[in-house]
Amino acid sequence: MNKxxxxxxxxxxxxxxxxxxxxxxxxxxxxxxxxxHVRDAIDLKRLLILVVIAxxxxxxxxxxxxxxxxxxxxxxxxxxxxxxxxxxxxxVLPLYIVSYAxxxxxxxxxxxxxxxxxxxxxxxxxxxxxLIVPVDIPLWMLAVAVAFAVIFGKEVFGxxxxxxxNPALLTRAFLFFxxxxxxxxxxxxxxxxxxxxxxxxxxxxxTPLALDGPAQYGTGFWDLxxxxxxxxxxxxxxxxxxxxAALLLWTGIASWKIMAGSIAGALLVGWIxxxxxxxxxxxxxxxxxxxxxxxxIFMATDPVTSCQTECGKWIYGILIGMLCITVRLxxxxxxxxxxxxxxxxxxxxxxxxxxxxxxxxxRRLKKLNAA
Amino acid sequence: xxxxxxLRQGLDIPVSxxxxxxxxxxxxxxxxxxxxxxxxxxxxxxxxxxxxxxxGSPVIADKKNPDxxxxxxxxxxxxxxxxxxxxxxLAVLIKTDDKQEYASFDTSxxxxxxxxxxxxxxxxxxxxxxxxxxxxxxxxxxISSFSTAPLAADSAFTLxxxxxxxxxxxxxxxxxxxxxxxxxxxxxxxxxxRLSGCTLHRFKGKHPAGNVGVQISHISPVLKGECVWTLSLxxxxxxxxxxxxxxxxxxxxxxVGGPAAIEPSYIEALPGTxxxxxxxxxxxxxxxxxIISGDILTGKSVGTCGYLGRDDDQxxxxxxxxxxxxxxxxxxLRFNQFSADRSYFSWLLPGHKWDMDTNLHGGPxxxxxxxxxxxxxxxxxxxxxFLAKACLAGDIEKMEKFGIYEVLPEDLALCEFVDPSKNYIxxxxxxxxxxxxxxxx
Lengths: 371, 441
Prior knowledge:
The complex is a heterodimer.
Chain A: H1 15-25, E1 26-27, H2 44-74, H3 81-114, H4 121-128, H5 139-153, H6 167-178, H7 180-183, H8 213-218, H9 221-226, H10 238-251, H11 256-276, H12 292-299, H13 310-330, H14 338-370
Chain B: E1 4-7, E2 23-26, E3 31-34, E4 43-45, E5 52-53, E6 58-62, E7 69-71, E8 76-83, E9 89-96, H1 110-117, E10 124-126, E11 130-131, E12 141-144, H2 155-159, H3 163-174, E13 179-184, E14 199-205, H4 212-219, E15 228-231, H5 233-245, E16 252-257, E17 265-269, E18 289-293, E19 300-301, E20 314-319, E21 325-326, H6 371-375, H7 384-393, H8 396-401, H9 413-418, H10 425-440
Parallel strand pairs in B: 1-14, 2-17, 12-13, 12-15, 13-14, 16-20
Antiparallel strand pairs in B: 3-9, 4-6, 5-8, 6-7, 8-9, 10-11, 10-15, 16-17, 18-19, 18-20
Helix pairs in contact in B: 3-5, 7-10
């Protein structure tokens, strides 16, 4: 790094930013100072870029789906797949620009204030945010929500690795509670050009979850599995999300225990709902609706905000699945339970860990004293 | 014979430069250093420049307990007293004689003989990894007969012929406390299985299965208020020689290896040997190489002007990793780098040895990954990240709960190696232990 960016130099106030760009370009030539003389080639940049790659199929599919849903609403037929994609790409690109510009600006500024290197945590959060919001969300709202989530969800706690809640979900929660008109109902999930309204007869733009029972049931299994339904940009395609899950599980970045626990919990409550006659949605369909798949694979497994202990991960995962379906079944006000379930369990994750480590410690002491 | 304890967690770092099993050079260095590098020892100098010392003569004593001595590993004349900032004693340099003369020791009382010969300072007391206190009786003395550390000396090669000395050492120590010796479970014909008078344990697994701390946690974990002693196999052999001959003899085979080592092999020398005498192994340049007394995970970087550590039988030579690598983190292949993580492809090349350097491969970040990421390489019943964070926070109660009594920094060295957040975990633990020592004193 140039001398003027070092401590005491004229441009020291820029050193975190310069360092960020420098380390983005190449692995720095810093050597170990103490402790282990050699280090594994892995770093957070590598881990987090893999998460982005894992989410890429869902993002690409989501862009196509934005165009496809628009086509359906406008009654278009025979449009080329790339035209759909291009329409969606142009719709989603501004979301990405706003998400990264606002989030990274805050991240750079606060790293500078703390005098630390810029952490790459926002690479992932910034990639997720456009995928979990309605495509037609006004950009200024997104900017406000991102600023709120990054500042109050992350930087006040000390930045990446210290946060309690998942910043991407916090962005969505902020939008959800501040601008409910843009975040629920049947109009917000389809992208329109200025002045356009849906023309196709009998077309409904609502996500299946926002509909009443029978209509919801009418959405086919394969439509939901492949993802050709309205919804937030990246959440609709279960198959694209599963591709990402495979990568996350293979590299071990995300915990299979959380995923399995969440699915088991959702199936359990969904089944109880069936048996008790609360809902006629078959319990397995709950896994395909709304943001459940995206939340389970990408949001619940965030290593910072989930439980640290292996036993805790089971509890945390199962409770997320159960809470999600409970909210769906018993709270007509909120059609989607995944976001709230994960944020609530983020809050309780440290408590779960505290209990798990507490039991571990007392069990260990007992074992040691007996020995 | 005891059952084999199989440790599933761990990692053998595939670094190149394994020393060949031959002694390429046997030497008595022209100068030799006595460094007061014992944790817990406050040095008081007993010699001045120009004094004659025999092999085994006291050079430095502990201020608090004058019975504890550091002795000369070879006979000669005190050449220089090296001092650092605030006149801190760094080393006593001795110009060695051509023909060695030995001090003789009375070996009727084990503790007295160990103290007088200076071998006492090779005993490490746990918890905290400090110099052993002669006033206490430990609940056991633990010795690991093998090392799983990267490029470590093969103990069957270095000491396999010295079973008689080792047996003498075991017999002497057994008069103080029960001796536990761990054997390499993957080698059924270990020469050390012939030792008697001690409890034998067999361990099998990747590094750190050979670490005595890990072994203790599986044999008899250290509880609050208890203490155990550990020592290296080389120290045990030296104790055995003392009780067999009445003389101090620290000569040992030393493994010199590492990716930057030229013709890695063994040498026969003494602790305190200057690295200058080993220049042939790295070609003499002083820039761009790191000379480590010990292994690449826990050893001490001593530089080209340093000395072999008091209890080490390994020197590792690696390149300094000053090179910047363009877009290295995103390069999907990067076959020239080793990673235990699946997000690189080094798992495709089992058995390949990597030319590793000292590059950090990233920048320091807060802990991001979960316990399990680190527990994969730690075969102990503790939570490494919770323990490290308790140490960072200086929370003594939590440190106790998360098992600070059972670990030394070296046990978590692999956690530090695999950490994608590039934390100095060993340093965190060491600071935690310092705090415990201060608060408990």
